[in-house]
């Protein structure tokens, strides 16, 4: 199996991790305000004490599995783009690997927060909530609370896809729009809404990229000269 097809599978895995994340976010975690600025830290550690496996599984899925699949996808897309826009390929690879590293780091911290808060809960639930809240803030700073790194990468991949025709035009345009939504998450007033748009757009984009890579179609040189490369 070629790297392109493996990258296509990785894109589908990324989409699946987002779908799994949303599923738990709107069910088990919805009453706790998880994913918003009003998250109930005490409620979270109560859940951690009762069922620690839920958050561990969720963090591992949306962060760790996603990051590992993302690395494969980043390299596969970079290789694909190198055939028509080598400059953009280098840029997108750099941004993509940075995002993957941040996502992986956020997942590791998120799981440590659960592991440290769980045993503390029995003796002092409020201290457990305070500890979880501090580590959760670090997690959000790395990427769980904003989508700057991911937005930049998807935006650049979308632009590269339009410039060099390395991706189908609808997929490239969706990437540009999704990337812009990710960048908007830096604005506090629009962060939650933009984050939801980014997440839903990323699911559709990952599915589109996955389908294209698995189809075996190759980039069509045509606008490389116009890109200045």
UniProtKB/TrEMBL annotation:
Keyword vocabulary terms for this entry: Membrane, Transmembrane, Transmembrane helix
rRNA processing: is it a keyword of this entry?
A: no
Q: Which residues cross the membrane?
A: 9-34, 54-78, 90-114, 148-164, 171-190, 196-214
Q: List the residue ranges forming a coiled coil, or say none.
A: none
Does the keyword Plastid feature in the UniProt annotation? no
What is the protein name stated in its UniProt record?
A: DUF4386 family protein
């Amino acid at each position: 199996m070629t790297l392109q097809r493996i990258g296509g599978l990785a894109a589908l895995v990324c989409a699946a991790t987002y779908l799994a994340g949303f599923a738990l976010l709107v069910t088990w975690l919805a009453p706790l305000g998880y994913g918003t600025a009003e998250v109930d830290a005490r409620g979270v550690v109560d859940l951690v004490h009762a069922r620690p496996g839920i958050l561990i599984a969720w963090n591992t899925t949306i962060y760790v599995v996603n990051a590992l699949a993302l690395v494969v996808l980043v390299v596969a897309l970079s290789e694909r783009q190198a055939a028509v826009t080598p400059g953009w390929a280098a840029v997108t690879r750099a941004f993509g690997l940075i995002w993957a590293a941040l996502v992986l780091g956020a997942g590791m911290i998120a799981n440590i927060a659960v592991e440290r808060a769980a045993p503390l809960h029995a003796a002092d639930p409020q201290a457990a909530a305070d500890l979880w809240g501090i580590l959760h803030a670090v997690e959000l700073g790395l990427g769980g609370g904003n989508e700057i790194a991911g937005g930049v990468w998807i935006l650049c991949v979308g632009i590269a896809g339009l410039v060099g025709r390395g991706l189908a035009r609808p997929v490239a345009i969706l990437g540009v729009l999704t990337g812009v939504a990710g960048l908007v998450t830096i604005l506090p007033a629009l962060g939650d809404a933009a984050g939801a748009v980014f997440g839903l757009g990323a699911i559709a984009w990952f599915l589109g990229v996955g389908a294209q890579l698995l189809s075996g179609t190759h980039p069509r040189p045509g606008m490389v000269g116009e890109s200045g490369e």
